Amino acid sequence: MPDATLAPGGTADLVADERARSAELARRADSRRQLLQNAGVAVPFLIVLVLGLTVVPHFASGSNITNMLVNAAILAIVGYGMTLVIAVRGIDLSVGSAQALAACVAASAVNSAGPLVGALVGIAVGAGLGLANGLVVTQLRVPGFIATLSTMSVFRGLVLLFTGGAPIMIASTSFKSVATASLLGIPVPFLVAVLLGAAAWFAFDRMRFGKHVVAVGGSPEAAVDTGISVNRVVLLSYLVSGAAAGIGGVLLASQLGVVNGSVAAGLELQAIAIVVLGGTSMAGGRPRVVGTFVAALLLSMINSGLNLLNVPSFYQYVALGALLVFALSIDGAQRAAVRRMLEGRLS
Amino acid sequence: MTAVLQVVDVVQEYPGVRALKGVSLDLVPGQVLGLVGENGAGKSTLIRVLGGIEQPVSGQVLVHGTPRTFRSSAESQAAGISVVSQEFRLVPQLSVADNVFLGHELAAGGVVDRSRTRGRTAELLEQLGLDLDADRPVSSLTVGDRQMVEIARALSREFDVIIMDEPTAALNVAETKRLHEIVRRLASQGKAVVYVSHHLDEIFEICDDVAVLRDGELVAHAPTRELDEARLVEHMLGRKPQTFERAAADVADATVRLDVSGVRVPGVAEPFDLQVQAGEIVGLAGLVGSGRTELTRALFGDLKTSGGQGLVDGKPVRLRSPREAIRSGVFMLSEDRKGEGILPHLDVTENAMVSRDRRALPLLQRLLPLVSDERAQFARLRADMRIRVPHGRQLIGNLSGGNQQKVLLGRALLSGCAVLLLNEPTRGVDVGAKVDIYQLIKQLADAGVAVVVSSSDAPELAAIADRCQVYFAGRRVAELRGRDVTEDNIVGASVGQTEVSHA
Amino acid sequence: MTTTATTPAPVPVQDERPRVAEVLKQFAGRQYLLGVLVVLCVAVGLARPAFWGSGNLSNVLFQASFVGLAACGMTMLIASGLLDLSVGGTIAVASIAVAKVLPSTTIGAAVLLALVIGAVLGLVNGLLVTYVKIAPFIATLGTLYLFLGAAFIWTDGKVVPISSSNYRAFTTGELGPLPVPFVVFVVLAVVTYLVLQRTYFGRTLRAFGSNERAAVLAGLPVNRTKVAVFVVAGICFALSGVFMAGRLSSAEGNMAMGFEMDVIAAVVVGGTALRGGRGTAFGTVVGALLFAVLANALNLLGVASYWQYVLTGAVLVAAIAVGARRSSAAEVRGAG
Fold this sequence. Notes:
The complex is a heterotrimer of chains A (347), B (503) and C (336). Chain A has 347 residues and is an all-alpha fold. Chain A has helices at 8-55, 62-87, 95-113, 115-138, 144-163, 173-177, 188-206, 208-218, 220-225, 230-256, 267-277, 289-308, 313-343; strands at residues 168-169, 182-183, 186-187, 258-259. In chain A, strand 2 and strand 3 form a beta hairpin. In chain A, helix 4 packs antiparallel against helix 10 (230-256). In chain B, strand 11 (209-214) and strand 12 form a beta hairpin. Chain B has 503 residues and is an alpha/beta fold. The radius of gyration of chain B is 24 Å and the shape is globular. Chain B starts with a strand and ends in a 9-residue tail after the last helix. The chains are: A mainly alpha (347), B alpha/beta (503), C mainly alpha (336). Chains in contact: A-B, A-C, B-C. The interface between B and C is large, with 67 and 42 residues.
């Protein structure tokens, strides 16, 4: 029982104690949340890895690993862009079509002007498409979902028109070798993905731009109030997403050697899946690049595992769907528990 | 002394409304100006104009004698005007330090200097008397702490004028005192402070002079020593005020409608007991963090409790969810009207009807809503409660805070509840509607409802409560009755004094 | 202690409800989309008079109905702040079921089976979203794959033909000048409107679409209703599949690939905001018709099919951009 009459100083002590208690609880809840977010993707990753190594023939073979890493790299790079867009409360459904267009234009450019120019053209096309998305969202005030739903259709139409429905074969062997080249045993595209991932992480975590991204996604009113140009941040995000799709498209073209207007169909669903699996909230806020990267590996392992098991591709639909649902149900329930834990303390 | 900020004949219009009809003000360095007025009088509009969020239709704003137009809050901040707004502009996912420096980060080449940011933030927090870890995410802070971080953020920039809009709305007594010290210090440093508040006692406490806005016009501007609260309210309302008194209810023989005993509530150290009779209004007082705020939520099934027993009208109840609570006859209104009260896309009639006790209705109406009946019900509510709305299909989002609260009270009434739990019933409500709401609460009690009011507004509790439990640091430290329910006793107990001064 | 107060000012006496003229005016002011549709029809009709041919118009109405039937369910979902991307999967599974059982049972039973399947698949989605607490977008993304996979596995990747001419007649027949599915669509749209605006169920879903926390605190049966909305939507999707399969005389896993985009577009362009809180069945009808006319126009103009992708997307953006310029909040309920 506290003293009968307390001097105001004593009150401050008690309030301070209260604060210290809530601070400790908050710290614990925060670290638990981090742990769960990481576990949300790490646990399925480990499960699939173990399953793959034990059950799938040739899973650990050199060619399969290379394949998995290259596929994961392409997916991860697109995922980084998607992570950024989702963090600012947007969504980019056009990444598949954009990647196809970038890949085909790049292929054509490689054939006419050489590998380096071709690659740059591909990336530029991706960035340009991303810029178009950003302008529709920020200048025309069309919600991201609908805007990129539309551009998904537009870009797909454009690439089909560009290719006339026919495949484009890439002549340059040096270009095609990029996807399979390796440095110290690690495929080059994977290194690119790791480097880009590190750069993305640094930008989000340590740079002013990253804080602005979290602000725009977490509390747009706060961002506006502090003078941040929400439009500029959103525009940049879509541009980056497009550029990432473009980089992925160049790598895809290199990997496949032959591209046509139908490649990368359904990429947006995979990209969104890995972003959400990786821990970035659909409600906007902190982008979690590392999670996206791990989730990309996860998905790639699943795809290759099922292929090696000669599972007909339709079963892969089922597998991917089930994995998503399963991983998210654990994730969602645990996050709700942490939220409830914190709720009790906030009055 | 040359004015640091001058507002000359500023006019602002919205479709169909003249929000500011030619307001002129001068501010000199070191001045603390109180700004008061009912909701809708133009205070928020004036703040938005000064803060650069809106451009006035006509008139001038001069900073250091130079006319300026601000096209964004960034421009107004650059000119030396800082605004601490009522709604928090914090990013929950970022740390305290990141929030304080958001928009004006301490960065080199785009890379944030983390140690400097943390250090500067720690300094500011220390000045505010806050013992907070600058790296903590804002999402984990209490409402009171978030307000303080808002203030820290305003202080982190260079400014000549600072406008504080209801800065103590979420602060407890100790924090309010500290804020006042800061205001005094800022004034002594030559800053000009505009202090906007509904808490008239604070205006008299720290302001040199006070300006009163009414219906978009500046109707009074005088030194605070020349005015008193009654005169101030008179200016705000344009009419002579009437005093509101409530004779203590005679509940000696009334039935006990709510009987809770031995319930363990998170945040409260000892098991919770409460008995409320029909017609009683019981107040729950205590600082933010004292455990008070958890109690009503627990009673409504919105918070997990353990042990103990609850009876409503003598029948045992298990309050595991709001839906079950309402079924058992308990209804609660949250203090967060916007986030937890109104359904913004629905009209006022539907907002009032959503919790209606359908068990009392004829069979057909239990299955499908009858438009004519609902319309009539709402018309009655509107008349009885004096809700200012042109018709029943108006979207509730367009109403003022006071009118929204009245609609929500109507929702509570239609739920047919035996026990009504109110949290901060007049937060963000202007004086005129405040009194209406007190009368409505009294009427509900007189009609036999057992009312529990949880509030940080001690004068409010003193005015309407028959009994008042006061909480401090997770414990109940006082149970005041009858004429002991005074503002002094409530406030004293809230900060730990257990001596009660009897009237 | 006493609080100072005022003598209550008399509240001005006002009309009980907004004058009908006012509501209509606001309603009409919002129907820019209907205007776009009319203009589009007139323009296409001028360029290609064949547009007005009864066979062609019938085509348009068929297309509109397939999207529209599903869109009615989607309207309720989106108005409650939810979403269902698994439309294509539900349609496939339901249609395949019809195709498979039709040889051995009556049309009525087959259709009923399809609707039950739609309800069950919707139930799966509803439970995942409500009780397992997965966000609708991603949950139905997962079930889309699941349902599609199931459909492919069931048919072994092949097409299942429908040979019952009675079935084809029933699902592709005409009632007067209008195709049966279109009539069903319009009826369903009216029902959707009534459910949304005139039932407690509709009020509940609009409420938690508007502010879920407030709806919970008001004691509304939010969880139960969420699941129910998914079930209802699933039934609408299955109904669409029933008619689609009749028109195609077959069913296969692929039959509605990418359909979710068309459905969501019809609803959102029609005026039901993705954020939830309000829904317009009338808008959905206009939205479905708009896209059907658009596709038909491109066909008539002989535009290479690839251009359809481009122009459909562009029109969608244009329609939203024009609409976004107008104020987004309705002043009065019923006006938008």
